[in-house]
Amino acid sequence: MVSKIWEIYENFSEIIYVSDVDTYQLIYMNKIARDLFGVKSVDEVKKHICYQLLQNSNSPCSMCTNSKIEKNCFYEWYYFNPVANAAFSLKNTIIEDNGRRYRMGIAINITAQEKQKKALAAAMNNETLVNEALKYALAEQDPEKSIQVLMEYVGKALHGERSYIFEEKDGVCDNTYEWCAIGVTPQIHNLKNIPLSDLTMWYRQFKSNNLIIIDDMDKVKETDPPLYAILAPQGIHSLVVAPLFYRDKIIGFFGIDNPPADDVAYIYNVLVLLGQFLVSLINRRDLFNQLENLSFYDQLTGAYNRHALDRGLRTYRREKSVGIVYADVMGLKRVNDTYGHSTGDKMLIDAYMLLARYFDKGDIYRIGGDEFLVISFGCDEGSFFSQAANLRLLMEQGGVRMALGTVWYDKYFTKDLDRIIKEADELMYREKREIYLNCSEFDRRAR
Questions:
Q1: Which fold has domain 124-289?
Q2: What does the pLDDT look like over 44-63, one tens digit per residue?
Q3: Taking the model in full, what pTM does it have?
């Protein structure tokens, strides 16, 4: 049925494209779209992934609008596509057929309009390109995504194979952000803990406010063997790299790999302009992370706090299964009164570390003075109860004692979570009463 729907758009003057929302596979492009992106036939369209063909990206686009579009309405936006070298007015919507969700896009090439001609000519100006990149980056609320969007846009606009940021900390450099063109192997996971001593020549130039320009890797092999050993395995034959300064201190660097040789001077100027903006975005990210840490993490134990739990419960969706552990640290008040709060604090930290030994730290919340909650989604029943049993065994061998309430459900709905948590809470209190009755160490009067 779907293929019949697309047939009516074949000779439209507007660009029409359709992709699977979940797999990103292209399903259809009309003739004008196929001609623009060099696809020979409708059958060939289905061999492509949308972000690879339309955006020359190795992974889904950071500025993808899939999360913003809905069925029966159109999301409108404007985008200058550096791959097609054209500006578009776009409308996207969701179409459902036989249980599958398709993203349909209608794009009007507005480059030919006089106003857009001027904008396109100005796009070759360094400041305009930087402003365009910042416009898309700052539209993102998440600072991490904001930086990723910026690197993606700049990488595409400068026609590099890879754009990236390295950040310095404790005498080493880590590759923290990366965008790769289609067919380029990501390197971000391989480029960690690089000693600054391997970058001595670069840092010497950075301190003189110079950028690094390499147009012949064979020269590097002769002049800087340690650097050559890092760059050559990545398939780099040319690059432009600029330092990142904050308060007159180098905090890292960013660059473009394998850009067109004729564009090196142009890229040089863009990176010079972009440096301080990138530093501002990194500082914005760090401030955001600090505020999030204060807002959503328990400052004593490092566990998530009740604010994080409330946020999580608003966003969780139905999963296949859920396991809940409700834990109460026994005897905390007695320890605080007898040995002081510093000893009690250590007791809480030890309790968190016990839980973290068997459950993912991202699933653990401190929800009260002596209470922790574990919410494990998508877990296997056997593994979940085995982890809980191992936790009990470890507590019996000494150290912190916690009363536990554990429940597991194969299927649940979001509305059921409060009830499931309450069930675990009741089981925890039942165990707590038994401990009080059978162990004089935790006699109620000692609390």
A1: Beta-Lactamase (3.30.450)
A2: 999 999 999 998 888 888 88
A3: 0.62
